[in-house]
Structures are given as C-alpha cells and as structure tokens.
Amino acid sequence: MRRIRTREVFMTYIVLCVLSILALFPFLWMLLGSLKGRLDLFSIPPKIVFSPTTVNYTEAFVHKSFLKNLMNSVKLAATSTGIAIVIGVPGAYALSRSKARGDGLLLMMALLTRMFPPVVIAIPFYVLMVKMNLMNTMTGAVLAHSILTIPLMVWMMKSFFDTVPKEIEEAAVVDGCSNLAVFFRIVMPLVLGGLSAASILCIITSWNEYLLASVLTGKSTATLPVAIPGLISSNGTLWGEICAVGTVVSLPIAIFMLAVQRHLVKGMTAGSVK
C-alpha cells in the first residue's frame, strides 16, 4: 500500500509539472523573444541559446512612449481599486448588517453590472463621457473602471462581513465603542484577508481591461494594453517590442500575485471561524 501511495503521489507531481510547463510556455517564449535581437528572433530553427539584449525594451520604453502608457496603467489600476475600497467596503458592510427591504435587489443590480460584457456598455459610456467632457482623460477611464471594480468589491466583501459574528460587535458596543470604532478596530482586522483578495482581483480587472480603455482614452492617456496594437503597422510588425511590452504587462501582476498569494488564499478560503 505504501508503494502504491508513493507511485500515486509521484504520478500526480509529474502531471502537475507537465501542466505547469504547458501553461507557462507561452509566457516563457514571450520573455525569450523580448531578449532576442531581430536575427535571433526570426532564426529557423528557433534559437534557445543566444546572446540576450535589451534593445527591444530600450526601443519600446525609451524611444517610444510606452513608459508613459505603463504609468497610465498603474494610475488607472491603483485609483479605480482605491475608489472601490472607499465606496465598496462600507457599502458591503451596510448590506451585510442591514435587514432593510430591497437589499437583495441592490445586490442583484450590482451583479448585473458584472454580467454584461464590456462591449455592451462601451457605447453608453462613450456617449456619457462625451457629454461630460471627459473623453480622452484619465478621470473618465477611472470612472468607467470603477463601475467594474466597485460591484466586485461589494459582492466579495459582503460575504466576508457575513462571516463575522454580530455578537463580537455587540460586545464592543457594550464596552463603549462607537460604530466607527467597531468597524475599523473590530471588524476590519477580521476581514483583512478578504480585503486583500478583493483588492487583488480589482487590480487585475483594471490592469487587464482593454475595451473600455481603448474607447475612452486618447494617445496621452492610453494604457499599456491599449498601446500594444500601435506596434503593428502597414510597414510590418515589431515582434521583439511586442514581446517586451507584453512581458512588462504580465510580469508586474505575476510578481504581485506571488508576493500576496498567502493573503489571497487566506481571503478566498476564509470561513465562519476566525
């Protein structure tokens, strides 16, 4: 039985390793392509051993305006997530503790905003931003992305607030805590894992979003995913620079996920026992 168990564990790890290699291969190939010169990039058969160069990164982020696009992506993701936290967390707490009629309808309306594909709301957002004189501005893009991140924050945080026993809050009120003190000093420390998980998902949603950003932003406010198609023209496709920009788009999120994976797993698996 011990040999059978060892064999099963070994085969499981083999399958997981193969699946991991298949999943990571496109990213690794893009990373290698970003470090190749033009001759190495188009060599047949493909070169695995080559002299790495940073010319693609230099061309994209120094000679072109992709550094500005990168900063736009950072500002958009950070600001929309911050707005989602400021508005969504108190809203989720209120919905969790309120027993008023119509709470379920509010939650359903928030969920509907996540069910619609971005292409459905792109034109209404475009018309709205034109009338508000917010086209091609970072403010307009932030407002549009906040519409996507706030419902996500509300839905996730409400489930985490529901796991906090109300008796803890009642005991704090008996000890003299105000409502704000109960919220910030008692409840929030218990749901920090959930807040981390929700914030991570909001950042990823805003960072990777393409359609709304491409419709609502202009040349000076375009995000990094929106700027990548500019490397494809009638004169040809700059594959090396596309690989470099694609790597920069993917790598920060990957590093961020690895850095906070403990909080993400804790938040996503949090139960009623704290």
UniProtKB/TrEMBL annotation:
Residues covered by the ABC transmembrane type-1 domain: 70-260
Regions crossing the membrane: 12-32, 76-95, 107-129, 141-161, 182-207, 238-260
CDD domains: TM_PBP2
Superkingdom: Bacteria
InterPro entries, per database record: BP-dep_ABC_trans_perm, MetI-like, MetI-like_sf
Chief place where the protein resides: membrane
A Pfam family the protein falls into: BPD_transp_1
Similarity-based family: Belongs to the binding-protein-dependent transport system permease family.
Protein name: Inner membrane ABC transporter permease protein YcjP
Source organism: Paenibacillus allorhizoplanae
